[in-house]
Amino acid sequence: MADATRDGAAPTAVLSRRNVDSNRYVDLSAACDRLAGTFDGSLRRYSTSRGAYCASGQSSSSYWTTQTGNRSQNLYGGLDYALDAATTLFAELTLGFNQTRNNTRGPSWTSDAAGNGYFFNRNTGVNEVWTKRFAPEEIGGAASFNRKWSDRAANLAAGVRGAAAGWDYEAAYSASVYTSRNTVRRLLAGIDSYYLGPRLGTDADGVAIYAPDPARFIRPFTAAEFDQLTGTSESDDKAWTQTAGLSGSRELAQLPAGPLQLAGVLEWGSQGFHNRPDDQLGRGVFYNVRPAQDVSGTRSRYAVGAEFGIPLLAQLDATLAARYDHYRFAGRDDGKPTYTAGLEYRPSKALLLRSNYATSFRAPDMNYIYAAQTRGYYASSTDYYRCKQSGQPLSDCEFADVSPGFNYVQNGSKELRPENGKSFGYGLVFSPSNRFDISLDYWNIQIDDLVTNLSADTLLRDEADCRTGVKDIGSSLCVDTLRRVRRNPDDAVLNPGTVREIVVNPINASHERTSGIDLGGKLRWAYEGSAASCCGSTTPRC
Fold it and tell me: What 3-state DSSP class applies to 380?
């Protein structure tokens, strides 16, 4: 965004009082003077065609964390113990501790935000909306509003590897657990009564009635006063996973071109998570916070697979592999076999030609399946419909790339189908000497039922086309799109016609296909008893 003032980006309202009925601002010149030293001295009286308010070009950037604070400690231990010449026990343990803090947005307040977003002012006899963004100077510094995460992780793996009855084998068990505590400083619910006084009831339209003292609204805070109107929430998340597996390989037979090799694997695993929000979030302790859900979920799986290495000729090798994966989650069972086939042909010592074909199967990630309803806002959004409605070109539309963007509501979906894929590729490796080689490979991947979140920008574009007749408004696409893009009524008292929220969730995209070429090379050389190498690669996509 281009700078619009000498003190930052385009000015954003910091302190404003607006008559909702006339859609004009009440001039707060005296307040702007009193707050002139805030936001690093950038706050100014800002005039518009609808009146004036106090604004700053640094109201957002003052709180942006330029570098996330991070402190971590990690511990590792490993043990190998040979029972005999053919059998070894092993174990590994990793512990991690991490503390993170950052900030992307400072505290702000809007009158009756949990209700209509405006109130009836008994003193003036009109509907009004009051808004305030708190400056770092008022709260004890921007860092005092940082979000904090305290994470712990532990990973354990143990097993035995060795050789028996012609097999090289490994049997292992691994488990990991991760916990995270998120600490957030929040405005208390009493902030409404601090600024507006006691609620005096509601009018015939259900709008809250107050008789506020404007002098309190325009007075700067001190850090001590801000402390009295804030509290902290602490939410705990936990995730775990465990896997037991047995793998082995052996030579099955001696063929004319070489040994026939077999590798096999058996796996079983389970995983789960539990997100436990602070119970204060559901008790009305904090300002403008909706109750959060306690969410948990589990999933189990097993798999069996085999791979054969087959020497067809002295210069031609084949690989055949098959695997079956089965998942159980959300009351469902999903399973499917997949396979892989590959060929490698070496017409000369310096040249290798190779090709492969494979299928794939992947169950949806747990966060897509079990996720509770979450709310947030996009960094920026474009209202394509209002741009079209006002006849403004997108490149110069006042409703384009508005920051912060629209609010969203996101849900998980237990109806997601597994992803299914196919891929193939072919290429070559040229190694004229042991000091130089170059590889060239073409690959092509196709995924059906790809799991992805709905794009809010795509929804807004489709909504504009549906509302303006470019697309049939009665089509299933338009019906679903208009259900997801929720606008205020055109006759709403506050923000008529604007996007109130966008409902998104993960879906199975119909199809995705991508292809590309990998080009790589390595060069090695030796000098005066030392060795060095360099390498490079590039991947142009089709």
Answer: coil
Going by the DSSP 8-state scheme, the letter that residue 144 receives in this structure is: G
| In the predicted structure, residue 226 carries a pLDDT above the cut 60 | yes
Q: How far apart are CA 53 and CA 187, in angstroms?
A: 23
DSSP per residue, 261-281: EEEEEEEEEEEEEEEE--GGG
DSSP 16-43: EEEETTTTEEPP-HHHHHHTTTHHHHT-
Residues paired with 429 in a beta bridge: 352, 439
At residue 240, what is the residue type? Answer: W
Task: Indicate the Cα dihedral angle 492, 493, 494, 497, nearest 10°.
Answer: 30
**The pLDDT of residue 244 is above 70:** yes
pTM score: 0.78
Residue 6 has pLDDT above 60, yes or no: no
Dist CA 10 CA 462 (whole Å) = 29
pLDDT at residue 511, as a whole number? 82
Q: How many CB atoms lie within 10 A of CB 470?
A: 13
- Better-scored residue on pLDDT, 11 or 501: 501
Is the model's pLDDT at 4 over the cut of 50? no
- List Cβ neighbours of 2 (8 Å cut-off, separation of 6 or more): 9, 10
Which residues neighbour 489 within 8 Å (Cβ) at sequence distance 6 or greater? 496, 497
CA distances from 162 to 77, 178, 304, 305, 514 (A): 21, 31, 20, 20, 42
Structure tokens at 87: 């059998």
Rounded-to-integer distance, Cα 352 and Cα 342, Å: 13
What mean pLDDT value characterizes the chain? Answer: 91
Could you count the other beta carbons within 10 Å of the beta carbon of residue 215? 9
Reduce the DSSP state of residue 212 to 3 states and report it: coil
346-347-349 Cα angle (round to 5): 70
Q: Is the pLDDT of residue 3 over 60?
A: no
Q: Quick count: other Cβ atoms within 10 Å of Cβ 538?
A: 10
Range in 57-71, 147-161, 209-223, 460-474 with the lowest mean pLDDT: 57-71
Residue 40, C-beta contacts closer than 8 angstroms, at least 6 positions apart: 7, 58, 62
Give the helix/strand (H/E) hosting 366: helix 366-370
* Nearest-angstrom CA–CA distance, 494 and 20: 6
In the DSSP assignment, the letter for residue 68 is -
99 has which bridge partners?
Answer: 71, 150
Phi-psi region of 435 (alpha: psi -120 to 50; beta: other; left: phi over 0): alpha
CB 97 within 8 A of CB 151: yes
- 385 contacts 460 by C-beta, under 8 angstroms: yes
Burial (CB < 10 A; 0-12, 13-18, 19+), residue 68, is: exposed
